[in-house]
Design a protein that fits this description.
Helices cover 39% and strands 15% of the residues. It has helices at 3-22, 33-36, 62-65, 74-86, 99-111, 125-142, 163-168, 203-221, 247-257, 279-282, 311-317, 336-351, 354-369, 408-418, 440-458, and strands spanning 41-45, 48-51, 56-59, 116-122, 150-154, 186-189, 226-231, 261-265, 290-293, 305-310, 378-383, 388-392, 421-422, 424-426, 429-432. Helix 5 (99-111) crosses helix 12 (336-351), helix 13 (354-369) packs parallel to helix 15 and helix 14 packs across helix 15 (440-458). The protein starts with a helix and ends in a 5-residue tail after the last helix.
Length: 463
Amino acid sequence: MSSDQSSSDNFAKAIWQKDVDHFTHPWQMFDSFPQEGSMILEKAEGSYLIDIEGNRYLDAVGGLWCTNIGQGREEMADAIADQVRKLAYASPFVDSTTIPGAQLASTLAELAPGSLNHVLFSCGGSTAIDSAYRLIQYYQNCRGLHDKKHIIARDASYHGSTYIAMSIGGKKADHPPEFDYERDTIHHVSSPNFYRAPQHESEDAFLDFLVNELEQKILEIGADKVAAFFAEPILGAGGVVVPPAGYHKRTHELCKQYDVLYVSDEVVTAFGRLGHWFASQDVFGIQPDIITCAKGLSSGYLPLGATIYSDEMHAVISEQGKDRCFTSGYTYSGHPVCCAAALKNIEIMQRENIFENASNVGDYFGEQLKTLLELPIVGEVRGYRLMQCVEFVTNKDTRENFPDTVDIGKLISDSADAKGLMVRPIGNLNVMSPPLIITKEEVDFVVSTLRSSIVDVMEPLGY
């Protein structure tokens, strides 16, 4: 072994150990992490990640639903560096702003549907949800409706990991008993997952059940007490669940009927993942009262979130003569460097027609993934365009899950890693959300590699 190679190996081992000793990761498993540690990623190019040993992986996870325009773009680096040199930071509080902050707020108002013309900036998706929650409280209090504070969300939903965002989320696996949650004013109704609906029930009947369940929950709590309904257009971390056709329109109409705000959590679905700036109206035909977004807003180059809300809400909270102060926001709200990155990101998306690629290649991706249904442990392939999921079952007829001890999704993703492919394991699922620049040839690699990884795992399990 050369001295350079030995030095490189020693450096990698040192980084690995520092990470194990000091970096507490999101969703870290305390029992296995000290032995297994982390894969150390060092570089990225387009849709690919490269680890510290030089191994190259096609990143079919897209970072974490976020590297939409791909990594390593020089013009993004230049835009960020230029803004750092010009103005790295200025306080956003009260009555000062920056050029990128004002420009991005105006751009988001133009891109968002209908009357969603007002923007609260934050540091990511979780804080965008927190901002929406506080905005809703403020709005209802401004209306004099001080008891109208209850929130309804869905089982299996994911809305972030800050206290209130995780409380609104409905993933049971994300609610371990060691953490506390707001429970008194937050309620959940069923996930719109037709694959897990009672067998032999039609999709129309399941839709009727979901809408009726939401209405009954509103009436049970009291319409005068329900402030808002939080819904991802497509559930992301909850299993890439596309609701039955008509679900969003009918639940939106129900919310309007009972004076309940509709919050569309588009942290994952916005900025091209489904082929549009926002999915709420362009894909599902509704204009919510609030849209939250992050991730693809800056394609992961810098942390940034936004809560976009309607003229109608703004008219209430800004009513003259009330001497009101909106005491909500963050040191980094509208951070000029993050906003400059988002503006350049949006420019690239427009100039390169990236949404057209996301639509065409996304449709192809879904079609090719469905060929995996011929494998005996693939129960369902679901999703829309560049947001896809493969669910694994022990029996296709009963749809029985593998025991948690098997950790089937992780077994398959580990096999894929060894072949140069990254997919995200979530229990019995492999979830994929690749960069929007992915090609059909790369899709073919994803599907063929995932297939061989599934086959590799099947044999030891007796299939």
